[in-house]
Automatic annotation (TrEMBL), chain A:
This is Hydrogenase 4 subunit B. One of its GO terms (cellular component) is plasma membrane. It is found in: Cell membrane; Membrane. Residues 135-416 form the NADH:quinone oxidoreductase/Mrp antiporter transmembrane domain. It comes from Candidatus Propionivibrio dominans. GO terms for biological process: ATP synthesis coupled electron transport. The keyword GTP-binding does not apply. GO terms for molecular function: NADH dehydrogenase (ubiquinone) activity; oxidoreductase activity. InterPro entries: ComplexI-like_HydComp, NADH_UbQ_OxRdtase, ND/Mrp_TM. Keywords: Cell membrane, Membrane, Oxidoreductase, Transmembrane, Transmembrane helix. NCBIfam families: PRK06521.1.
UniProtKB/TrEMBL annotation, chain B:
It comes from the Bacteria. One of its GO terms (cellular component) is plasma membrane. The chain crosses the membrane at residues 6-27, 69-88, 100-122, 134-154, 174-191, 234-251, 257-280, 292-313. It comes from Candidatus Propionivibrio dominans. InterPro entries: ComplexI_Subunit1 (IPR052561), NADH_UbQ_OxRdtase_su1/FPO (IPR001694). This is NADH-quinone oxidoreductase subunit H. It is found in: Membrane.
Length: 669, 317
């Protein structure tokens, strides 16, 4: 009997999740057990997984062969720095989301709680297995389990036709993508037919084949991550799913695709070509700009966040592409900087986007409303949710001293110090990308001000909002966990960079920990202090000291009173809450500036209408440019093939006869 | 970190707090002279601030705690920003804490909070102003960052102290890229400080307001803090322009004699800069809000051009 290694502990944790799910479905009528025991227990094991994975990051790789699956095809599992980092992301985020879900699930909302408990924990287990898998077979099994369990979670409210449609779209894109991944594994395994990752590492494909494998993997994982133009499922599926599930999908599941592509491009393939990186960078940049512009014009709060996820995934791919470029030109130090920015942003996005999705969940429960145009003024009714949403909003807008800023700062730094690449054009174009990233960050700020301002500030736009209630105790714990995570990730960048060191050493052969640790925990200086430095602790510290100081001085020296009066608004007498800016109004400048990007339909009222209506619909142009033409071609093709189906037995007998004849001729000849 | 660095830092902060309203008054005075009006006193901004501080605060019924906290936060952000920009010395204790990118982040933080405060009471003009402010912000921020990137590429550093040292103590070489970047920076500062081609600080017509529309609901000490923060922002931007494009005379050591000389030089430069700003404001007319994207788009393109000029002509040979 061998000793119990870290990987065994990780595996046990993943299986405990599965067990929790099974208990939930067995005792599915015991709602108290499910919501008060099982989900919090799942959260606790999320924490356990995070702690275990933290230990795994700087440990040596461990392998395990599980004798399950088909007779000749056992599951190979492996725990190395890369998978540990992503398992940490999964565990830490799941801890917050699960405890929130414990307070969030209700009886009579969509799928029964017992079944939801099973699907949710199966989803968690399958994601853990995706990150542990060490052969193509186990990976695909876990990948498909993940896709299917999340599909059933998305279609939890399956009685609505549009939710079924969203789920179908999600399933379709997920499976088209899975085909790409499967083919990529096939190319990398070569003719030997051994699907373990070890065999793929040893087998060095030559010529065009590594590129084909990379492009197939990019297609497959890009579909899961929501990279342009395979992003269309995201804004459909995220609003359809219950909020903890949207949080899990956006925060963690999108990152499994990043994990997969990192695994394929750095670990399984040996030599990287620079134009792979350039391709990734371009696709990422296009996604980020597209997502940022579209998130500013949305009127549904979860769609807004979904487009913002596309933007963030785009930024992650930009960093990824830059890493590939540096790696291919053998510049390990810069590659490490870009990779740290990429992975850091993965972690940050997992925290702040889950936080924001969970906040929309609380708003949804309190008001039954997803439409931004019917919300408003919730800061008075839901202070907990509001202030924690503010943390998420600031992080998502990339503002110091929160976490979103640190990764964007690192990304910009890695673009600014690109000089010295052997490719002249790249040398010149890469610093310009930094300008595009600045534009994206500023647009994200616009979208986030719109989101927060319209939902939480101002006056309530509907009567019923005065009945809104704040999040429950368990929900608050979940939100608080993620909010504190955003703050800590922002304040302690050096701790995170030191943590990431083994990962960057594994993937690009260099790390930043020396530069990070040489200045103390409070000063982030990735290259040297002269070149660039940033200290979030001093930043926050000065504001925290200055604000009360100013307050004290001002209120001490001028003791003036504070009177509550009706709002002034330049003295205009008649003011109703309907006169506030709506979500459409707030997005109007962007619609106007970027009008070529949008597919817009507008209905104007005519002067003779008894009930004038104004409608403006902004749609994704990719539907019209790409998806509908493809759907039309597929439909046309099926109509041609359907000609074979004549519905008379004689015809089918004729087909068999003709086939037989052809085969006979072919074997004879 | 030594004693002089701490001293220089505190001195810089105090000078910023004191000088900012005076700079504002100086620009107004110059503008009045250029427009053949009799000018308000140089210390007019102080009188206004003092009047506001001595008034009661009238707060709308549904104003939230975010609305009340925002003035203090915005003021702190701007004070911190003017402490980060090297004006008297490049040896400051705050200089490693934030580089040029973090400074832009700090301005963005203040902008987001003032925009949220504008939406808080839920009046039509407040949210109109917030929307326009965010529009100007998202157009101006990339242009400003591109200007910073260009000078960072010249100095091989994004740290403001290093940039100023490199630019101030170099041999006298004319960088064509800096000329483009300087024009772009001027355009951005006009937009960011709500000056004339974009916004009118003295407007009384609600529909054309941007900055003023957001702060319509503020009164008393809250309004005073916001006005002071606005003048601090103008001061910080002016000092930033000086530090990036006319850094001659900013010492690298922080002994009292050098600081005194630097302070004198700073006052002269600020007076000149304020006059130029008043001149620009007098010579141009306010543009419609949807001409702003063109104006700031031009600024962005100029900044891109600056970077390209730097990469094409000034490196590598």
């Amino acid at each position: 009997m061998r000793e119990f290694l870290l990987i065994d502990w990780v595996l046990t944790t993943a299986l405990v999740w599965l067990l929790i799910g099974l208990i939930g479905v067995v005792f599915q009528h015991n709602f108290t057990l499910i919501s008060r025991v099982l989900f919090p227990l799942g959260a606790a094991f999320g924490l356990v997984l995070a702690v275990l994975a933290l230990n795994g990051i700087d440990g040596s790789p461990q392998v395990l062969v599980l004798p399950i699956g088909l007779p000749d095809l056992p599951f190979h599992l492996r725990l190395d720095a890369l998978s540990s980092f992503f398992l940490f992301l999964l565990g830490a985020t799941a801890a917050g989301i699960s405890i929130y879900a414990a307070g969030y699930i209700r009886k009579g909302e969509g799928t029964a709680p017992g079944l939801q408990c099973l699907l949710y924990h199966l989803f968690l287990t399958s994601m853990a297995f995706v990150m542990l898998a060490d052969d193509g077979y186990a990976f695909m099994v876990a990948w498909e389990t993940m896709a299917l369990s999340s599909f059933f979670l998305v279609t939890s409210e399956h009685r609505h036709a549009e939710i079924r449609r969203a789920g179908y779209l999600y399933l379709l894109v997920a499976h088209v993508g899975a085909v790409g991944i499967l083919l990529s594994f096939g190319v990398m395994a070569g003719s030997a037919g051994d699907y373990t990752f070890d065999a793929m590492r040893d087998f060095s494909t030559v010529g065009i084949w590594p590129t084909i494998a990379f492009l197939l993997a990019l297609f497959g994982f890009g579909a899961k991550a929501g990279l342009l133009p395979l992003h269309v499922w995201l804004p459909e599926a995220h609003p359809a799913a219950p909020s903890p599930v949207s949080a899990m999908m956006s925060g963690v599941m999108l990152k499994t695709a990043i994990y997969g592509l990192l695994r394929v491009s750095f670990d399984l393939l040996h030599a990287q070509l620079w134009w792979w990186g350039a391709l990734l960078l371009l696709l990422g940049l296009a996604s980020a700009i597209f997502g940022a512009i579209f998130s500013t014009v949305q009127t549904d709060m979860k769609r807004l966040l979904a487009y913002s996820s596309i933007e963030n995934i785009g930024l992650i791919f930009v960093g990824f592409g830059l890493t590939l470029i540096f790696k291919s030109f053998a510049m390990p130090q810069l590659a490490a900087l870009a990779l740290v920015a990429t992975l850091y942003h993965c972690l940050n996005h997992a925290f702040f986007k889950s936080l924001l999705f969970l906040c929309t969940g609380s708003v949804l429960h309190a008001t039954r409303e997803r439409n931004l145009g019917k919300l408003g003024g919730l800061i008075h009714r839901m202070p907990w949710v509001t202030w924690l949403a503010l943390v998420g909003v600031l992080a998502s807008a990339g503002l110091p001293p929160l976490n979103g800023f640190v990764s964007e700062w690192l990304l910009l730094q890695s673009f600014l110090f690109t000089s010295g690449l052997p490719q002249g054009y790249l040398n010149m174009l890469l610093p310009l990308v930094a300008g595009a990233i600045a534009l994206i960050a500023a647009l994200a700020g616009f979208a986030m001000v719109k989101f927060f301002g319209v939902v939480f500030l101002g006056q309530p736009r509907e009567e019923k909002l005065s009945q809104a209630h704040d999040a429950g105790r368990l929900e608050r714990i979940g939100l608080l966990w993620l909010g504190i995570g955003c703050l800590l990730l922002g304040l302690l960048p050096n701790v995170v960079i030191t943590l990431l060191d083994p990962v960057t050493r594994l993937l690009v052969g260099s790390g930043l920990s020396f530069a990070a640790s040489s200045h103390g925990w409070w000063l982030l200086a990735p290259i040297s202090e002269d070149r660039a430095s940033y200290s979030p602790a001093i930043f926050l510290g000065s504001i925290v000291v200055l604000m009360p100081l100013v307050y004290w001085v001002v209120n001490r020296s001028f003791r003036r009173r504070l009177k509550r009066v009706p709002p002034w608004d330049c003295g205009f007498p008649l003011q109703t809450s309907r006169m506030q800016d709506t979500a459409e109004g707030f997005g109007q400048p962007i619609r106007r500036i970027f009008s070529p990007f949008f597919k817009r339909t507008r209905e104007h009222p005519s002067p003779f209408d008894t009930q004038p209506r104004y409608r403006s619909l902004v749609e994704d142009p990719f539907w019209y440019w790409l998806y509908l033409p493809i759907a039309r071609i597929v439909g046309y093709g099926t109509r041609i093939i359907a000609f074979l189906q004549q519905g008379r037995i004689a015809i089918y007998l004729l087909y068999s006869f003709v086939t037989l004849l052809c085969l006979l001729v072919w074997t004879r000849g | 970190m030594n004693f002089y660095a701490l001293f220089a830092q505190l001195l810089e902060l105090v000078i910023a707090l004191i000088m900012a309203p005076i700079l504002n008054g100086w620009v107004n005075q110059c503008r009045a002279w250029l427009q053949n009006r009799s000018a308000p006193p140089l210390l007019q901004t102080y009188y206004t601030l003092s009047k506001l501080f001595h008034k009661d605060v009238l707060l709308a019924h549904n104003a939230s705690s975010l609305f009340r906290a925002a003035p203090y936060l915005i003021f702190s952000c701007m004070a911190l920003a003017s402490a980060i920009v090297p004006t008297l010395s490049t040896e400051l204790i705050f200089s490693p804490a934030a580089d040029a990118i973090a400074l832009v982040g700090l301005f963005a933080l203040a902008r987001v909070f003032i925009a949220l405060a504008g939406m808080d009471v839920g009046t039509s003009f407040g949210s109109l102003g917030s929307r326009r402010e965010m529009l100007i912000g998202f157009l101006a921020e990339p242009a400003l960052l591109m200007v910073f990137f260009t000078v960072s590429l010249i100095a091989q550093s994004t740290s403001l102290a290093t940039i100023v040292e490199t630019l101030a103590h170099r041999d006298f070489v004319i960088y064509p890229s800096l000329a483009f970047a300087g024009v772009a920076f001027t355009m951005v500062s006009l937009a960011e400080n709500a000056r004339v081609p974009i916004d009118n600080p003295t407007t009384h017509l609600e529909l054309t307001m941007v900055h003023e529309a957001m702060i319509l609901e503020y009164s008393g000490r809250h309004l005073a803090l916001i006005e002071w923060a606005a003048s601090l922002k103008l001061f910080a931007y002016s000092c930033l322009g000086i530090a990036l494009f006319f850094p001659f005379g900013i010492p690298s050591a922080a002994d009292p004699a050098a600081l005194a000389v630097a302070a004198a030089i700073l006052v002269v430069k600020l007076a000149l800069g304020g006059f130029v700003m008043a001149l620009i404001e007098t010579l141009s007319a306010k543009m419609r809000i949807f001409r702003v994207p063109e104006f700031l788009g031009t600024a962005f393109l100029l900044a891109v051009l600056a970077m390209l000029v730097h990469l094409l002509l000034e490196t590598g040979q």
